[in-house]
Design goal:
Elements: E1 2-6, E2 9-13, H1 19-26, E3 45-48, E4 51-54, E5 67-69, H2 76-89, H3 98-109, H4 117-123, H5 135-150, H6 172-177, E6 192-197, E7 204-210, E8 220-224, E9 234-235, E10 244-245, E11 262-266, H7 269-277, E12 280-285, H8 292-296, E13 309-317, H9 320-326, E14 329-337, E15 349-355, E16 359-364, H10 369-380, E17 387-391, H11 407-417, E18 421-424, H12 427-433, E19 439-448, E20 454-466, H13 472-481, E21 492-500, H14 514-532, H15 536-543, H16 563-579, E22 584-593, E23 602-610, E24 613-617, H17 627-639, E25 646-648, H18 667-687, E26 699-705, E27 723-733, E28 739-747, H19 754-773, E29 779-780, E30 783-784, E31 802-806, H20 830-842
Parallel strand pairs: 1-5, 6-18, 16-17, 20-21, 24-25, 28-31
Antiparallel strand pairs: 1-2, 3-4, 3-5, 6-11, 7-12, 8-11, 9-10, 13-21, 14-19, 15-16, 15-18, 19-20, 22-27, 23-24, 23-26, 27-28, 29-30
The structure holds FE2/S2 (inorganic) cluster (2 copies).
One FE2/S2 (inorganic) cluster binds next to loops.
Length: about 850
């Protein structure tokens, strides 16, 4: 046994345990997060004799006699200061990284109470945050330092929660101090642990699964395979293309290395790996298809019964051949972008347990509890209401938690065994299993007249959609519908294919296909600007859609569309940089709010009076964007009540009505509007003279359906989406080619909470910089080779200054009080603006991500 001190208490534990497992599993210190288990993310940081140390790397034996401090062991004063400072600065989004950041902050401030900004950045070098862009975390640490130095009291928040106020996030303190619970922070009595066996190569025939040896292990509980699935062995986010096997059955062929062949259940977390190692699976290795070209070859084996093309989009308006023939300038360019990984900080985890005679209760952290309910119920052959899903905190998603990963396996094991079961992915499993951002090959031909006004676009897009459908079809569709950009021309021929391969599946990822085609479109604009002899800003200004124009997809541009205003806000910034001789890139883009294209798109909310407070109940998942704070402010605005009278409940299929998936930047708009409508019901009663006490127990329902036209509508101006957000951005480089400033203007409609919106955009910008410059997800014959630390995620020391402006046109009606949302738009313009800056620097078009021959990657193509 190893003796040590943790948070002032003498404790002892087994010497082979990792320190993190001892702290989390034995001492239940939930501020210590396991983000990677690979020493790369800093989420597990603790202080060891005052020094910031990653607890996931070394065994307990190395800490004998040491003093360990976690956030739980901070003084109450320190806890109060950090909780206040992180909330006040708007530094908390999904929150998973934050306790590690707080530990890094204390490690710094204990030795340097007045750190310079660069010293704060340096102190955070070992800690990844995927949500925030680090700006507000650094501001929070500077604020905490000042308060601790000056012994300032904790100020009370003096606002009313109305729209436009910087109401501190309602979950900020719990996330900062590590008391807020993510799924893996929960333990249940008699809980079992399960993990899936997966093939070593992408395409393998499963010959035989044998658990004879495993059964001899004292902690063996069960091995489940396809034969044990009582309902449908296929899952899939889109019900009409459910092509993803719960398990690949004996005799069948795997489609990627993340496929599950069997599920092993053991009595303890510690023995799970040993039991798993005793299960033997015989395979026959088959040649994988690792590119769309290979999958489209005539003699290629069919990966799915429907063939190897998941979806095909062909959007045509006008006569592109004629327009290009008559154009004054035409450019044609090939663009190539790789798979990229969400790298959300919290690996996937689910806990399931029996509920009632036949049902199952599932704790999850996905992007929609009702999707999880539907998919799990179908797999178990149960009525949906027998599957009770409750969401815990979600440590980031960005689209990567829309599909089932662990939920169905936990539910199956719990339902069959009638015992609680936890399934937690290791970081390496997480990297392999969930769908990625699509790799795309794109050929874009754009034409303009002699003034630089666009006349036509021909685009061919081939997306590698990997092993399963996931959301590959809709992603391809958004890639195509946005490919022509937010510009005023209506002559397009855009042909897209999403092709199945034996690579990991690709699906939703912030931007939903638009990051890829925006890069191609915006780079072609840069090439045309050069031919015309006008600036990168001018060509965009001449073409930008204004109210009353028609988007390339035919939709009329709303009266409040602010792209022109965004560009005008960037004019001085761009010209100043150019005058100073700095390389500067400009990009514009737009992104839909809501699913649109005629599909069901609905927000729902119940507002109820309980215990004298107003409960806001919607199933909309907060994956870090701050939805509970949005709905709280919507309720405060509608009811005129202060935020401490509002309780925003966590999603729960028994309490919160179905508000759809957190996807397509839709929840601020859809669930925000549903909240407003539900709250109006309560307001009418209050206005009629009733008190909250008299209304105790009453419920008010709000629902909002977004009505749109389907793809291929024959209307002259179909409404594809209920709203679009717009942005313009300028990126500049220093002499060494390092990004030294990002300025941006956003039209996201009414800004509910400016600080939260800035935080979203800062995080989106950093993600966009990583996409352009450093991030990659390499595959070796279909096998991912990256670890969390080699994905190319940017760190605090890489984050440039960012300045964000909001522009807002007139409100068009009351829907969601004029908010449009910005979750995805935040990421889209950055990579093209970086490409423009490098093009301005040396006249070389870098048409491939991550870009080469830059400050960040020296290799030349
Ligand atoms: S969990 Fe330890 S560094 Fe990521
Ligand atoms: S808030 Fe930092 S990873 Fe989400």
């Amino acid at each position: 046994m190893v003796n040590l001190t943790v948070n002032g208490r003498a404790v002892s534990g087994g010497e082979d345990l990792k320190l993190i497992d001892f702290l989390r599993d034995e001492l239940r210190l939930t501020s210590v997060k396991n983000g990677c288990g690979q020493g790369a993310c800093g989420a597990c940081s603790v202080l060891v004799d005052g020094k910031v140390t990653r607890s996931c790397v070394l065994p307990l034996a190395r800490f004998a006699g040491k003093n360990i401090l976690t956030v739980e062991g901070f003084s109450q004063r320190e806890k109060d200061v950090y909780a206040y400072a992180f909330a006040e600065a708007g530094a908390v989004q999904c929150g998973f990284c934050i306790p590690g950041m707080v530990v890094a902050a204390k490690g710094l401030l204990d030795v340097n109470p007045s750190p310079a900004p660069a010293e704060i950045k340096k102190a955070l070098r070992g800690n990844i945050c995927r949500c925030t862009g680090y700006v507000k975390i650094e501001q929070a640490i500077a604020l905490a330092a000042k308060m601790l130095r000056e012994n300032s009291p904790i100020p009370a928040w003096e606002g009313s929660g109305l729209l436009g106020e910087n109401l501190p996030r309602v979950d900020a303190a719990a996330k900062t101090l590590g008391t807020g619970l993510y799924v893996d922070d929960i333990t249940v009595e008699d809980m079992l642990y399960a993990t899936a066996l997966r093939p070593p190569k992408p395409r393998m025939r499963v010959l035989k699964i044998d658990d004879t040896e495993a059964k001899n292990h004292p902690d063996y509980v069960a091995v489940f395979t396809a034969k044990d699935v009582p309902g449908n062995n296929k899952i899939g986010h889109l019900e009409f293309i459910s092509d993803w096997d719960v398990f690949i059955a004996e005799g069948n062929v795997t489609r990627y290395v993340g496929d599950a062949v069997a599920l092993v259940v053991a009595k303890t977390k510690a023995s799970l790996a040993a039991v798993k190692a005793l299960v033997k699976i015989d395979y026959e290795e088959l040649q994988p298809l690792t590119s769309p070209a290979a999958a489209l070859a005539e003699d290629a084996p069919k990966l799915h019964a429907r063939g190897n093309v998941l979806s095909h989009e062909h959007l045509v308006r006008g006569d592109v051949d004629a327009a290009l023939q008559n154009a004054a300038h035409v450019v044609t360019q090939h663009y190539s972008v790789p798979f990229t990984e969400h790298a959300f900080m919290e690996p996937e985890c689910a806990i399931a347990m029996p509920e009632g005679e036949q049902g199952v209760l599932l704790y999850t952290a996905g992007q929609s509890i009702y999707d999880e309910q539907r998919e799990v119920a179908r797999m178990l052959g149960l009525a949906p209401d027998l599957v009770h899903v409750r969401a815990k905190l979600v440590g980031g998603g960005f689209g990567g938690k829309e599909d089932m990963s662990v939920q169905h396996h936990a539910a199956l094991a719990a339902w069959l065994l009638k015992k609680p079961v936890k399934v937690l992915l290791s970081r390496q499993e997480s990297l392999v299993i969930h769908p990625k951002r699509h790799a795309m090959e794109m050929d874009f031909t754009s034409g303009c007249d002699e003034d630089g006004r666009l006349v036509a676009l021909r685009a061919v897009v081939v997306a590698d959609t990997g092993a399963y459908a996931s959301l590959g079809g809709p992603v391809l569709q958004r890639a195509c519908t946005h490919a022509a950009g937010p510009y005023n021309y209506q002559c397009i021929d855009i042909d897209g294919k999403a092709v199945y391969t034996n690579n990991p599946p690709a699906g939703a990822f912030r931007g939903f296909g638009v990051c890829q085609t925006a890069f191609a479109m915006e780079c072609n604009l840069n090439l045309l600007a050069e031919k015309v002899g006008i600036s990168l800003w001018e060509i965009r200004f001449r073409n930008a859609v204004r109210p009353g124009n028609v988007l390339p997809n035919g939709q009329l541009v709303e009266e409040n569309a602010g792209l022109e205003a965004c560009l005008l806000a960037m004019k001085g910034v761009y010209e100043k940089a150019v005058t100073a001789g700095k390389p500067a890139g400009v990009a514009c883009f737009f992104k839909n709010s809501g699913i649109g294209v005629g599909l069901e798109d609905v927000g729902r909310c119940i507002v109820s009076v309980e215990g004298g407070k107003v409960h806001v109940r919607t199933s909309a998942a907060c994956i870090g964007q701050g939805l509970a704070t949005v709905t709280t402010q919507e309720a405060c605005q509608t009811l005129g009540l202060p935020p401490d009278m509002i309780v925003a409940e966590a999603p729960d299929t028994r309490r919160t009505p179905d508000s759809g998936t957190t996807t397509a930047s839709r929840q601020t708009f859809f669930s925000g509007e549903a909240t407003r409508r539900a709250a109006l019901g309560l307001k009418a009663e209050l206005d009629a003279g009733k008190t909250l006490a008299q209304l105790e127990g009453q419920e008010f329902f709000g629902e909002y359906f977004g009505v749109t036209d389907p793809m291929g509508s024959d209307k002259p101006n179909p409404v594809s989406h209920v709203a679009y957000g717009y942005a313009a951005q300028v990126v500049t480089l220093d002499d060494e080619g390092r990004v030294d400033n990002v300025e941006t203007a956003f039209d996201m409609g009414r800004v509910i909470n400016p600080k939260a919106a800035q935080g979203q955009i800062e995080g989106g910008i950093l993600m966009g910089l990583g996409y352009a410059l450093t991030e990659d997800y390499p595959l070796d014959n279909g096998i991912p080779t990256a670890k969390y630390g080699t994905l190319g995620l940017l760190r605090a020391t890489d984050a440039p200054p960012m300045n964000i402006q909001f522009v807002q046109g007139p409100a068009l009606g009351d829907i969601a009080y004029g908010a449009k949302g910005c979750g995805e738009l935040a990421t889209i313009p950055t990579a093209p603006a970086v490409a423009g800056a490098y093009y301005a620097k040396d006249g070389k078009l870098r048409a491939k991500f991550p870009m080469e021959d830059t400050f960040y990657r020296k290799t030349k193509p």
